[in-house]
Amino acid sequence: MQPETAPGGGRLRRPIWPAPDGRAVQVIDQRRLPHETVIVDLNTVDDVIHAIRSLMVRGAPLIGVSGAWGVWLAAQAAAAGGRGFDAIEEEARRLAAARPTAVNLRWAVECVLEAIRRSGDVGAAPGLARRAAEDIADAEAENCRRIGLHGLPIIQALARDRRPVRILTHCNAGWLACVEHGTATAPIYAAAAAGVELHVWVDETRPLNQGARLTAWELARGGIPHTVVADNTGGHLMQHGMVDLVIVGADRVTAAGDAANKIGTYLKALAARDTQVPFYVALPSSTFDWSVTDGLRQIPIEERDPDEVRFVDGWDGGAARRVRITPAESPAANYAFDVTPARLITGLITERGVCRADADDIRRLFPEK
Amino acid sequence: MQPETAPGGGRLRRPIWPAPDGRAVQVIDQRRLPHETVIVDLNTVDDVIHAIRSLMVRGAPLIGVSGAWGVWLAAQAAAAGGRGFDAIEEEARRLAAARPTAVNLRWAVECVLEAIRRSGDVGAAPGLARRAAEDIADAEAENCRRIGLHGLPIIQALARDRRPVRILTHCNAGWLACVEHGTATAPIYAAAAAGVELHVWVDETRPLNQGARLTAWELARGGIPHTVVADNTGGHLMQHGMVDLVIVGADRVTAAGDAANKIGTYLKALAARDTQVPFYVALPSSTFDWSVTDGLRQIPIEERDPDEVRFVDGWDGGAARRVRITPAESPAANYAFDVTPARLITGLITERGVCRADADDIRRLFPEK
After folding, report:
1. Could you read off the pLDDT of A99-156 as tens digits, one per residue?
2. CA dist A314 → A1, A187, A357, B326 (Å)
3. Which residue(s) pair with B167 in the sheet?
4. CATH 1.20.120.420 fits A7-140, yes or no
5. ipTM score over 0.85, yes or no
6. Which residue ranges does chain B devote to CATH 3.40.50.10470?
7. Which chain A residues are Cβ-neighbours of B216 within 8 angstroms?
8. Structure pTM?
């Protein structure tokens, strides 16, 4: 465990970076937040796969960047062991399969592979992979900054005298999930920086409580007023005019605008539609899956260990502790994502600007796809 | 702590009964389920108010019956202390105010008071109160049995060859919440008894996990196949055709059919409507509030201690344990109920039969109101 500072002594603002030794990757172990800030070294591809599968790192953009850095580790191992490109590609395939829903992972791994392949020299692969991974991380950070810029006017337009703009978000699509700024949080951070008064309703986000643990931690560190609520609460808040705007992230968005995101997002989108609250999805374009148009039928939904539902991780008396909440004999099911149909989405906030969640308007922003 | 048997040695099937000493009331401490079955003596009105407020007893019908037994305790104390009807009425007022949303509580307390008032003799009050409380408890049990009978054909109509009828429920509207059979569970138990194959999706029901703790415990004891899911999951299940029917209970239903129930019910009703899954509310007529027509504007929603959101109670290594899941500095809000508008409800299952959730059809079943 290391102190809560980034390499060089600055305040943490990224969840992943190359270790000072130039060989490993370092990440914040997000399973232990908000109770402990623990930095972990990932030394091998297996370490990266474990970090992704165990949710030590999570969030579509960060999973992608982690995969990119994983290819760097694979390239180092291949170069050191005198193995060829085949070995790196084999490891890349394993990395890309670590989680099925996140399209960024396959995309980022392929980007780094492509950069390596161009050289034709395994000895050059580690350096090329490192540069490609850094480029992807920096590009994701820049994309998130731009998502913030494009989302800012949406929040500014909702600002009224004498009360904060009240935003609801689900799960964690903050800088912990991305590389900097976050996706759903980028407009929030941009609005706070622009002096807009804000209050954020943070969905706890069962079963793994990414909202209660991670988004609340981020917002508290950023000085953004916020209140944690059970996932059941958002509909009531919207019915009573207590939410001006919903912004969520996404794990995969189809070319027609359907959004796969953390389980429960669909329920909030339904409530937003029923109560006329604008519902936005913020995403970098790497989250689009251009090959898919029908999100409900075509996006595979990951099923995770039912024990994530049966047990809750928390903090008691200065130590992490896991408690069981169900009867010992009762089974549980754990679907990790759901798909919000495009018809329920007011707009998509991307690094290129805001568009409607439909194929034509998405293509207007991304004509090359 | 006593063994898991009812007085007389039978299997527990009611959550409240008069103690064998003829002076106290005994209840199952529902906060400690499913991990421990603990029977607690309630000796005073304050004990009953504490049991209601702390959720040792919960569920609209049981809260009502608890209030009724509370008036019995007040009558015993008044008779023993040589005090008059005023003292009993003062205690009854305190009982009726213990929880704001449950209309049954005020109704049941008033019923027992009415029975006492008729005698004009404080010495006779304890006996009259006991009989009135017993009558209310038996009537609630009979109402729940009839709810089961009326709901059974709805489930039978959904039975198909070679697969179970898949029912989703939220919170606990089982016998623990009622007196016997439950409300939402009554048709489920009736269908199981009639040989219909069933599978129940149990919403965990944050923040107090009444589904994961209590409904799962009840169904496991009753041998009903079930799976616990995070509250976020129901929309996904309905989108994918994995739910045939939603049945929930209610804490208060307006004369026009709006239903106040555990927070999050509205979100499931929205998903059911969006996916064409039938959504039923099961309730005894004591849950109707005939004085109210606009549930969203007129039903006060209880706000409970935010620590119920920030902390989770569970079981670890043979002991009950409470863990914090949020950052220490992050506030939380805890709205206990929401209102599902009548337009989202397929029907109401009452002890008199099934009706649509609208003023006319409700009045058809209850013409005397």
Report:
1. 877 788 999 999 999 999 988 889 999 999 999 999 999 999 999 999 999 999 999 9
2. 19, 30, 37, 8
3. B200, B245
4. yes
5. yes
6. 147-365
7. 326-327, 330
8. 0.93
